[in-house]
Batch of 2 targets.
Target 1
Amino acid sequence: MSQTLDTVFAALADPTRRAILAMLLEDDMAVTDVAHPFAMSLAAISKHLQVLAEAGLISQEKRGRVKWCKLEPDALREASVWMQGFGQMDSLDLDAFERFLAVEIGLEAEAEIPGG
């Protein structure tokens, strides 16, 4: 299970791959259509698609001369179940956490200044 989660989360870590998944939410797309909005080569997009396919997040099939990509939403189920386990925790007050970090970092910075 953890290797599958590692692969899925590694694939999701890249903003380009997340954008591709969002595009595929709408419908299946040809690889060239997936590549169109990105300022990168078709080869670079193909590498992103390969990572997504290896994680099981998309499938690819050849229809005639065109390679099509399809979202595989079931691949996210295991990751979603894992993340929902953290939903039982109290929500984190990010503002308070940011203030805490600012104080802690500020104290460390002062401690590093000679004579401070």
Target 2
Amino acid sequence: MPRPLFDREAIEAEIDRVRALGLDELRTLWRVTFRSSPPPAFTKDLMARFICWHIQEQAQGGLEPKTAKLLDGLARGAKPGADRPRRLKPGTALLREYQGERHTVTVVANGYLWRETTYASL
């Protein structure tokens, strides 16, 4: 079994050390780590958890850029999936009833099939 790129015991030891720190020491560590003051509403436990998460993130390589971008967008109020177009696979059937008549559109490789005619878009 391949050994991970980070030393699990060292990370766990650092996490234990962080959890044992007092409030003033955590605030100092926060300032050194994040180059800003901790939010005033953060409790000792929350500060320690956030710092420990950061230690693990750095040791394991952090988030993929795509995931970081998604989370940043969500934090700014974007709706999930709003920036991604829908991808329908060939063979998908779309059903809609309109004025009592059922319409079936099937996704095909070069567009959409409706009433035995292929269209480039809906």
